[in-house]
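Changelog-adjacent note: as of this version, every example in the card shows the full chain rather than a window. The one below runs 100 residues end to end.
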Amino acid sequence: AQLMRCRNGRQVLVAGLVTIRQRPQTANGTIFLLLEDEHGFINVIVPARLVEANVEVVKYAPYVLVTGRLERAGSVLNVAGRVFSELETRPLVHSSRDFR
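Full-length structure tokens:
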């Protein structure tokens, strides 16, 4: 919820449940994560150059903590991720359907 008050380009820390993972063919290796928490959703961009070093987290972790730069385009917010960590939680009752 605090992201709406942050200025464009600010360094931010976000965390949440990964509800969608996308790696479009046209994105040249970039992965897009959609994180959800009790306040809403945030799009996270994982640059191709950071995917391999963070593959276990960005491809498989159910809960993720991301440090990155806020990108604002009108009312649309994205976080360009820089550092990725898995959040340790209790086991999920349901699992996501990951397309690999």
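Structural remarks: The helical segments are 48-51, 55-60.
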